[in-house]
Design goal:
- With about 230 residues, the chain is an alpha/beta fold.
- It has one domain: Rossmann fold, CATH 3.40.50.300.
- Helices cover about 35% and strands about 30% of the residues.
- The chain has 8 helices and 13 strands.
- A 9-stranded mixed beta sheet has the order 5-4-6-7-3-10-11-12-13, with helices on both faces. A two-stranded antiparallel ribbon has the order 1-2.
- Helix 5 runs parallel beside helix 7.
- The protein is globular and about 50 Å long.
- The protein binds adenosine-5'-triphosphate and magnesium ion.
Length: about 230
Amino acid sequence: MKLISTGIPGLDEMLGGGIPKGHITVIIGPPGTGKSTLALQFIHTGLKKNENCTYLSLEEDEEDLIRTAASFQWNLKPYTENGKLALTRFSAHNIKATIDRVENDLQKILETFKPERFAMDPITLYEMIHDTDQERRTCLFHFTQMIKNIKTTAILTSEINPRNPNYSRYGLLEYVADGVILLKYIRPENSKTTVTAIEILKMRRISHSKETRPYTITQNGINVHSESEVFV
Ligand SMILES: Nc1ncnc2c1ncn2[C@@H]1O[C@H](COP(=O)(O)OP(=O)(O)OP(=O)(O)O)[C@@H](O)[C@H]1O
Ligand SMILES: [Mg+2]
């Protein structure tokens, strides 16, 4: 089985090399924990390996994404220009149009472009535009089938459930995904500062670390301290 390097120091070690090719992995975390950064870092890693990559944002437009990446010294411009990177934004304002774009436009983009890596940030906005869990479940099922069909390795970012930060907002993604990675804030006892920590909850078909490890976000992106422990 081929493993795809996330490009995030320390995370690949926790995974035993990387994410199995073709897997769909959900990154769940509260605001500001680095979900978008992780997704961008994953895509930038693929671009450096000359892979076709697609980044779909439901928040930031192309210019903003290029600026965000530049703040980590990742220069995306050459890749949008040479056609290795498709940066797309679907605004989630118009509900009907968004569902339509995900079901039709995205499918076309993925089928023509055949990206080896795909990131969607955040998928929560796509879940939110559905009225019931039943509709959400059906749409997620179709969406994940579409991604599976093109055999890309995908990262989907998700907001947490406000009542339980260990779960995605609607608690559905965990079941359709092959992998679940949790980002969280932890405040060690007697400490005035909060640390960010990462845990691999699930990754089908590989033996991965079950530990919770601290990570930092620097001007070079996310760095997981896979040898350090978090003391609570
Ligand atoms: N260029 C940078 N250099 C260092 N740290 C940065 C940089 N850019 C962002 N950060 C850190 O990363 C955090 C935000 O990361 P990111 O936007 O990836 O989080 P997120 O989980 O996607 O947040 P949200 O839920 O709001 O979408 C910032 O709060 C900041 O601490
Ligand atoms: Mg974000």
